[in-house]
Specification:
The chain is an alpha/beta fold. Among the domains are: about 105-325, Spore Coat Polysaccharide Biosynthesis Protein SpsA, Chain A; about 385-480, Roll (Nuclear Transport Factor 2, Chain: A); about 500-630 and about 660-720, Spore Coat Polysaccharide Biosynthesis Protein SpsA, Chain A (Alpha-Beta Complex), CATH 3.90.550. Helix content is about 35%, strand content about 20%. It is built from 22 helices and 28 strands. The strands form eight sheets. It has a six-stranded mixed beta sheet. A five-stranded mixed beta sheet has the order 22-21-20-23-27. The protein has a four-stranded antiparallel beta sheet with strand order 14-17-18-19. The termini are far apart.
């Protein structure tokens, strides 16, 4: 009984005991025992190192990695600080980047044109070639053997210094290798007695692969027929690929030494054939080099052959007049092709618009022109101007009606003539229309599409039988904006020193203190590259009393104070005596005291000048090109703008604080050289009428005599305090009227003046 009970217990515990025993056994088997050499300070006979906790240090834990210093006691570990040493960065490798992305990507221009000329024809045929092709092509260079001191304006001429024809051709090809071989894909050479249709030669190379070794022109047999192959006749020009020239380059010197010829085009042809085995071709892959030989004294307008109309080049041209007639003929052909293409595209747009979602309404009129501007609010609605053939009812000076004159009168006349012409195109020969009068005319400028016109015309309609009657027709016209063109401007820099001229009279003394305070913070403290000069204006009486009672003594003392405060600053002044102050007379004196490359800024004492404006003065005044007349922001009279309110210390650029004074031309930026040149052109008129110096300002002088661009623009960085200006009645009527209007408009806005009148009337009534 007991035995069976014991067996049952062992049977249940047996697997557990066996498992535990097996686990201990496997654990002991997995432990590795090591006998390391004892350290010098260990006890004799110690085979195993004991740790602080009594564990065997010689035993390695299962699945652990043994270390070199495992036998070292933890108590022997001594921490140490490793000092941080900053790694000096090595100098970065300088990476060369090309100036232009096209250079880095290996992109080249398409066509180079070289014109072979001579000292006898460069000023006649050479100039004619330049005027007819240079504005169509990117690079046109003239090659000649003679060296001349006088080179025609606007031409790039390379002189080789030798009149020998073969030598000139050799030097021309060598010049191409030295300067342009890596910049162009195709090289076109032509004589100056040939007319080239530039757009067609450009279209030809656009369809040619740049990696082809091609020698293209009018093929010609060699003289005598002794040599096989054909060369390109130079009179009609010839086209060489860059690949062909690169292949020819190593043998150019051999050609010069070994090949004898009397003609440069034949010499080059023999060189190409001998060393590249490439012959001249007149057709390649369906593309033809069309040319036409012009008969002596022939009239281009009478040539009707298809070969002439398709020609790339026409040769020979006897004189510049014939060159210009050829250019006109081919230009008219290309222009007519353009008109035909436009008409074709317009017809296609109309046909496609029929199947559009909105039908024909989806096609804007005129076809191909941007749709009209759509205002988002009533403030964006474009204003129409009403006009007749004699008057316009929208005047610059605010008058309700003024005479239609100048460019406006020419514009209206041109629009009416165009309208009559278009109507006759539509109705002739059934009806012929003649203008009787313009009943109503409207125009507005749309910034998206151009100038729009609506005309109500009274016309006389004459039918084929000669019967006529008067009808009224309304027409709509658009003068679209032309293609935007980038006009190159001379290089200017913001590092130019500006000489600021401030004229002062007796009435201006009270504003000097504020002007110097503002200018010192904006210029003196920031070391602005500008020099301030005061011009003291005395009348004869004040000039006689200057030793006893100098009216500008306080101003001069203020200048001394600022010069002591800013030792690096010098503020010069100039004293003048005159009965009638005049800008031109003052500048005559100042101009003589400065170099010709001086940049002047003529301003008023109530003007606040800062660095932002001075930089724009430097950028917009361009020597021998442009003068700058900024439109300053004129502050209103503070007693009107802030009636019964405290005056603010600083004013924002808002409509209640002031306005841009378009009637003031007192501030201007210009170079001394431009002033001196313009002033010299007035000499003859001044001798006839000396008063012209007194009744004309600098603005009128530059407009009338300079021939420069007069740039006038709103300048938000240039502000003026309110100052009632004393208008000089000796000035011209227009200048005096502008001065009076400027004074009136700078008092306050219409709403502010209306409120003052309302308060005044309300006070009087009570």
């Amino acid at each position: 009984m007991r035995f069976s009970l014991l067996i049952s217990v062992l049977r249940s515990l047996g697997p557990v005991v066996i498992g535990i025993s097996l686990g201990f056994t496997l654990s002991l088997l997995s432990v590795s025992w090591s006998e390391d050499a004892c350290s010098p300070d260990s006890k004799e006979g110690e085979a195993v190192s004991l740790g602080k906790d009594g564990l065997l240090k010689g035993a390695r834990k299962p699945n652990s990695i043994s270390a070199v210093n495992d036998v070292t006691s933890e108590e022997d570990f001594q921490p140490r600080i490793v000092p941080y040493k900053q790694i000096q960065p090595s100098a970065p490798k300088k990476v060369f980047r090309a100036k232009y992305i096209s250079t880095e990507l290996g992109m080249r221009e398409r066509l180079f044109v070289g014109v072979m000329t001579s000292k006898n024809t460069i000023n006649t045929l050479g100039v004619a070639v330049n005027r007819t092709i240079s504005h169509h092509l990117d690079a046109v260079i003239f090659f000649t053997g003679s060296r001349s001191r006088k080179i025609p304006h606007g031409m790039f001429v390379v002189s080789h210094g030798d009149e020998r024809l073969i030598w000139n051709m050799f030097q021309t090809i060598k010049y191409i290798f030295d300067h342009y071989i890596n910049e162009y894909d195709w090289f076109y050479f032509v004589q100056d007695d040939a007319y080239t249709e530039a757009d067609r030669i450009k279209a030809l190379v656009e369809h040619l692969s740049m990696d082809r070794e091609l020698y293209m022109g009018r093929p010609e047999e060699f003289i005598g027929g002794a040599m096989e192959g054909r060369y390109c006749y130079g009179g009609f020009g010839y086209l060489l690929s860059r690949s062909l020239l690169l292949r020819l380059q190593p043998f150019l010197e051999n050609c010069r030494n070994d090949i004898l010829s009397a003609r440069p085009d034949e010499w080059l042809g023999r060189c190409i054939i001998d060393y590249t085995s490439i012959n001249c071709v007149g057709e390649y892959e369906g593309l033809h080099y069309h040319h036409y030989e012009l008969a002596k004294n022939s009239d281009p307008s009478k040539e009707q052959s298809e070969e002439f109309k398709k020609a790339l080049t026409v040769h020979p041209v006897s004189d510049p007049e014939q060159m210009y007639r050829l250019h006109r003929f081919f230009t008219e052909i290309e222009l007519q092709k353009t008109y035909d293409e436009i008409a074709k595209l317009q017809a296609e747009i109309k046909n496609v618009s029929v199947v559009a979602f909105e039908g024909n309404r989806s096609a804007q009129w005129p076809v191909g022109i941007n749709p009209p501007f759509e205002p988002k609010s009533r403030f964006e609605v474009l204003k129409w101007e009403y006009f007749t053939e004699e008057e316009i009812y929208s005047c610059i000076d605010g008058s309700p009606k003024c005479e239609l004159r100048g460019i406006d009168r020419m514009d209206v006349a041109d629009v009416i003539d165009t309208a009559i012409g278009e109507l006759n195109k539509k109705y002739m020969p059934i009806i012929h229309l003649k203008k009787q009068q313009l009943i109503n005319g409207y125009r507005r400028f749309d910034p998206i599409r151009g100038m729009e016109y609506t005309l109500d015309l009274q016309l006389e309609a004459v039918n084929q039988k000669g019967h006529s009657r008067s009808i009224t027709k309304r027409v709509h016209l658009v003068r679209p904006l032309s293609q935007i063109e980038i006009i190159p401007m001379p290089y200017v820099t913001e590092a130019t020193r500006v000489h600021i001229i401030i004229p002062l009279t007796l009435q201006d003394r009270s504003y000097v203190d504020h002007f110097l305070e503002v200018f010192a913070s904006n210029a003196f403290e920031t070391s602005e590259n500008a020099i301030l000069t005061f011009l003291f204006i005395y009348d004869p009486v004040e000039a006689q009393q200057v030793s006893q009672n100098d009216i500008f003594a306080s101003v001069k003392s203020q200048i001394t104070v600022y010069e002591r405060k800013y030792p690096a600053v010098k503020i010069p002044w100039i004293s003048v005596k005159t009965e009638t102050p005049s800008q031109i007379k003052f500048m005559d004196i100042i101009s003589k005291k400065h170099p010709v490359d001086t940049l002047f800024f003529l301003a008023e004492v109530n003007t606040n000048i800062n660095s932002e404006f001075l930089n724009r003065c430097r950028m917009n005044a361009i020597n021998n090109w442009q003068v700058f007349f900024p439109i300053h922001f004129q502050e209103y009279n503070p007693d009107v703008a802030y009636h019964n309110q405290p005056h603010p210390d600083t004013l924002d650029l808002v409509k209640d604080a002031g306005l841009f004074d378009r009637r003031s031309f007192d501030e201007t930026c210009f170079y001394n050289s431009d002033y001196m040149t313009t002033r010299s052109r007035m000499v003859a008129d001044v001798q006839e009428n000396e008063e012209i110096l007194e009744n004309m300002d600098i603005y009128e002088m530059f407009v009338k005599y300079s021939g420069l661009h007069v740039f006038r623009a709103i300048e938000p960085a240039l502000r003026q305090q309110y100052l009632y200006e004393v208008c000089n009645p000796r000035l011209s009527e227009d200048i005096y009227h502008r001065c009076v209007q400027s004074n009136l408009e700078s008092i306050g806005s219409r709403s502010q003046l209306a409120m003052l009148l309302f308060e005044q009337e309300h006070g009087n009534s009570t």
